[in-house]
Design goal:
The complex is a heterodimer of chains A (about 180) and B (about 190).
Chain A lengths: L5 H24 L6 H30 L11 H32 L4 E2 L3 E2 L8 H34 L19
Antiparallel strand pairs in A: 1-2
Chain B lengths: L1 H12 L3 E20 L2 E7 L2 E6 L9 E7 L3 E2 L5 H4 L12 E13 L2 E10 L2 E14 L2 E11 L19 E10 L3 E4 L1
Antiparallel strand pairs in B: 1-2, 1-3, 1-10, 1-11, 2-5, 3-4, 4-6, 6-7, 7-8, 8-9, 9-10
The chains are: A mainly alpha (about 180), B mainly beta (about 190).
């Protein structure tokens, strides 16, 4: 069975690592009182988000140029449709999450400057009530992503442990496919 | 003829009078800008007042007094309740920031320089504030900007005194509309 290529694997795991970091930092900093440390964390969180946004666009481009390996033959029509829908939703969420943060920052009147060097254009005019509403959207998206990632992980484990196919192995670096 | 005599009398008496103008809230703006982790941030003060006694022909006779209610500060939602606290502006103990100048000199081309004392949070520093003065009908418009160092006034104490997150330089920008001159005896 065919595996994802090295670039697809690298991007997948890199985005996973950055998303995990952004999630943990975002969740932690949320309740902190305003301090230099919090501003530092917010900046890192924002820079990570922009990086994820760029990497996800790269992933989509790479995916279009290099279609993913075919799904195992044992999967039903419904399962294939579900897998495809699931991946589409994950991509939409991975773009929507940083985008909502970017919009939120614009509405709050705090521009996003990637790594403190590259200023991103403000997509909205300063509008504190809208900023507050967007921060709730951003937070809700975080939990929605968490739920979808959980389903994604469970599905991969189901393929590996119950279906005993190579769906998990084809994305995990160094994992050997079982089938000949 | 009587009117002419009256006008001449008024002209003749002019040197003993100065024209005092009072700041008009409508159209006036005092804003500031600073860098927070290299991100440009803007803020403003909503409440301020002032008196400007200025004669473009004799700027050296001027006197300026500006008062700003520090509690009327607006930066961004999360910061607004923080910056009036004691470690920042301490608005309760020091409700007003004040600028007074009795030394204005012409720089040419409608530009002037006011040397004066800026007092914020109990600290006073000498500052030089360049501005442009234009008469617009009966009103006058004063535009200018200058940079202050927040550390000079202990704006941001303790962990905030480091300037790597919130920069030390604060650019103060003003656009002041001052009302018609009212003659006053010196």
């Amino acid at each position: 069975m065919q595996s994802y290529n090295g670039i697809a694997k690298t991007l997948h795991w890199l985005v996973f690592a950055l998303m995990s970091g952004a999630f943990v930092v975002g969740f932690y900093m949320h309740g902190l009182p305003l301090s230099p440390g919090k501003l530092q964390l917010i900046s890192w969180h924002k820079w990570t988000g922009v990086t994820i946004f760029v990497l996800v666009l790269l992933r989509l481009t790479w995916r279009l140029m290099n279609p993913p390996p075919v799904l195992p033959s044992h999967m039903s029509h419904l399962e294939r449709r579900a897998a495809e829908a699931m991946h589409r939703v994950l991509y939409v969420l991975m773009l929507a999450m940083p985008l909502s943060g970017w919009l939120m920052s614009s509405a709050k009147g705090i521009q996003t400057v990637w790594f403190g060097v590259i200023p991103l254009p403000d997509l909205l005019h300063k509008n504190p009530p809208l900023g507050k509403a967007l921060s709730e959207v951003h937070e809700a998206l975080g939990f929605i992503i968490l739920a979808f990632v959980a389903v994604h992980v469970l599905a991969a484990l189901k393929h590996h442990l119950i279906d005993r196919d190579d769906v998990l192995a084809r994305m995990v670096p160094g994992m050997k496919p079982r089938s000949k | 003829m009587r009117a002419l005599i009256f006008a001449l009398a008024l002209l003749a008496s002019a040197p003993t009078f100065a024209a005092e103008r009072t700041l008009q809230a409508a159209g006036s703006r005092i804003a500031f800008a600073f860098k927070q982790m290299n991100v440009s941030m803007d803020g403003s003060f909503k409440k301020f007042s002032g008196k400007i006694n200025f004669d473009a022909a004799k700027p050296e006779t001027s006197s300026i007094e500006m008062l700003v209610d520090v509690a009327s500060i607006s930066v961004y939602e999360e910061a607004d309740p923080e910056v009036i606290k004691p470690i920042w502006l301490n608005a309760t103990a020091f409700p007003q920031a004040r600028f007074v100048s009795k030394s204005v000199k012409a720089l040419g081309g409608g530009r002037y320089l006011a040397n004066g004392t800026l007092s914020i949070k109990g600290a006073s520093r000498e500052v030089a504030v360049p501005f442009e003065y234009k008469e617009q009908g009966a009103n006058a418009v004063v535009d200018g900007q200058f940079t202050l160092k927040r550390g000079d006034y202990k704006i941001g104490e303790g962990e905030w005194s480091a300037v790597d997150i919130v920069a030390n330089d604060v650019l103060v920008k003003f656009h002041l509309v001052v009302g018609p001159a009212v003659a006053m005896k010196r």
